[in-house]
Design goal:
The protein is mainly beta and 553 residues long. The chain folds into 3 domains: 79 residues, no CATH class; 53 residues, no CATH class; 269 residues, Porin (Beta Barrel), CATH 2.40.160. It is built from 3 helices and 24 strands.
Length: 553
């Protein structure tokens, strides 16, 4: 379409002048109506345009300059080539004093439909226009005309900006063609990659092979990062999966579908794939029992008082007394009885444990007082005990310790303060974590007399304790409750029945149960008491009350 402001035709012939002028006005009118009103002012007709209700003067008055006429006399349309739609070089509009003429860019093809007028974009802050990074002109496909587009990643500064009609909206902001005025758009909130990742749901791998489920009770070992193609690799720091710093491990994940299967899988992973972040330290809940020693070697001192009531057969297997039938090293019976009918005793002992890393030396000195029913009351030092403790497994789930004690015959046997022979006692001590607030302690020991009389015999004794934190008086002052079970199985030896004389001691077991309370103060010292009751008869004692005070250093 021809634009009247770009090309001025030559004068037409008199008959065709009116037709040419009407065609020119019809070409000007749509373009003038489609121009955007950048100043956002009320629409008003130009000053040089006559009102609609007034007649239009096709020819200007004689007062105007000849240059102001759209068509000069004698001018024709021959200066324009309709084939290439370009004006002749010698027919460019010339500026005048009254109406300067602006050069226009090459013509743009008509749009299918006029785009809506976009209101200006108002940014938060209202500080006004600020310099913006230079834009890069991008041409429309197939057209020589260039329109400025914003550079990628350039955000518009705060303030009021006129809406650039031909430009797309800046990334991160919104504009609307339906609003009648300026629209306030809040600042665009940056969206992080982590936020996007949380909103995305990974698709299920369609082609991934599905592993068959194991049968109930079956334990399955699968390859984990600790093993890559059968080759082990080093773990340089704490936290690697299935790794231990400075060591090589080929660890496989163990899975099972039953409780016992999961239990044994936990044992397997604890032994083969230790936690590299486990920090060995003293746990009060793991050393609260009264009849089970702690598995972890710890430097401390312990003072204990035992009060046993109604003990019968004190020389059984020569564990407490030596042979006491009148022919042995033990106390002499009081006629007409063949042995002691019973006794009460009190014993105070001091126990010292000196630990270095996973090894400890122990030393215990007891002081005993006996009160028999028939004999005389005696008191003095009993047999001393020395021993060692070696921690062989130290994991968060459980600890395993080998303990070895030696009973030295230092007490007076005739007064009922010792056995008169050396005894050895190897044992296995285990601590097992159930939860952060509960623990299991267990011991399995074999008491083996060396020398002694025919009364001496081996004893297998075992103890288990369930420890549970009951309350915290202060954040560092917990109170722990214990429930314990104790058993002594006699494998050999004899004892003296006060009425029947010598009897075989084997094939019998003493059992007892214990309830206790222990209070810890800042892992520095603790105190507690327990009550042990016989579960069958005869037994070592009918009741045994124990008080303890321990101090760690």
């Amino acid at each position: 379409m021809l634009r009247a402001l770009d090309y001025v035709p030559r004068p037409c012939a008199a008959p065709a002048t009116i037709g040419c002028l009407l065609a020119t006005m019809l070409a000007i009118a749509p373009r003038a109506m489609a121009q955007p009103n950048d100043a956002q002012q009320p629409a008003s007709p130009p000053a040089n345009v006559a009102p609609v209700d007034e007649p239009i003067d096709l020819f200007p008055s004689a007062a105007n300059s000849p240059e102001d006429l759209l068509f000069q006399p004698g001018q024709s349309l021959g200066g324009f080539d309709f084939d290439d739609e370009r004006p002749a070089a010698d027919h460019q509009p010339q500026p005048t004093a009254n109406a300067p003429v602006q050069l226009q860019p090459p013509p743009v093809p008509a749009m299918p439909a006029a785009e809506p007028n976009v209101p200006p974009l108002v940014m938060p802050g209202g500080q006004g226009l600020m310099p913006v990074a230079p834009v890069q002109p991008v041409p429309y496909p197939g057209q020589p005309h260039l329109l400025p587009l914003p550079s990628p990643g350039v955000a518009m500064p705060p303030g009021v900006h006129p809406a650039a009609h031909p430009l797309p909206p800046v990334a991160g902001y919104e504009r609307s063609a339906l609003a009648g005025g300026p629209m306030v758009v809040p600042q665009a909130m940056p969206i992080s990659a982590a936020f996007i990742a949380r909103q995305e749901e990974l698709p299920f791998p369609v082609d991934a092979p599905v592993e068959p489920l194991s049968e109930p009770g079956e334990i399955v070992l699968t390859e984990e990062p600790g093993q890559m193609g059968g080759a082990c690799f080093d773990c340089p720091r704490c936290g690697g999966p299935g790794c231990y710093p400075g060591r090589k491990h080929c660890c496989s994940a163990c899975t099972a579908r039953t409780r016992w299967g999961r239990f044994w899988c936990a044992i397997y992973e604890t032994i083969c794939c230790p936690d590299p972040c486990w920090d060995p330290t003293f746990l009060y809940i793991a050393d609260s029992a009264f009849f089970v020693p702690g598995a972890r070697p710890t430097s401390h001192m312990r003072f204990r008082w035992d009060a046993g009531n109604s003990m019968v057969f004190p020389d059984r297997a020569e564990y407490f007394w030596a042979q006491a039938n009148g022919t042995g090293l033990g106390p002499q019976p009081v006629p007409p009885y063949k042995g002691e009918r019973g006794l009460d005793y009190d014993e105070i002992s001091m126990y010292t444990e000196a630990a270095v890393n996973n090894f400890a030396m122990t030393f215990e000195v007891p002081y005993r007082s006996v009160d028999p029913l028939d004999g005389s009351i005696e008191a003095g030092f009993a047999d001393m005990i020395i021993g060692t403790k070696s921690l062989i497994f130290d994991r968060e789930l459980f600890q395993v310790t080998l303990q070895f004690r030696t009973f030295m015959p230092s007490g007076n046997t005739l007064e009922g303060l010792g056995t008169g022979h050396t005894s050895l006692e190897p044992s296995l001590v285990v601590g097992f974590k159930i939860s952060p607030e509960s623990y299991l302690q267990a011991q399995l020991a074999e008491w083996i007399p060396i020398g002694g009389s025919e009364y001496a015999g081996s004893i297998l004794h075992y103890h288990i304790s369930y420890n549970r934190t009951l309350t915290h008086l202060l954040p560092d002052v917990p109170v722990v409750g214990t429930a314990e079970f104790n058993g002594w199985s006699f494998q050999d030896g004899s004892y003296t029945d006060p009425y029947k004389g010598q009897q075989r001691a084997n094939d019998f077991t003493y059992t007892s149960g214990t309830l206790g309370l222990r209070m810890f103060v800042c892992d520095t010292f603790d105190m507690g008491m327990s009550a042990n009751f016989a579960l069958n008869t005869p037994n070592w004692t009918r009741e045994l009350y124990r008080l303890e005070f321990r101090m760690r250093y």
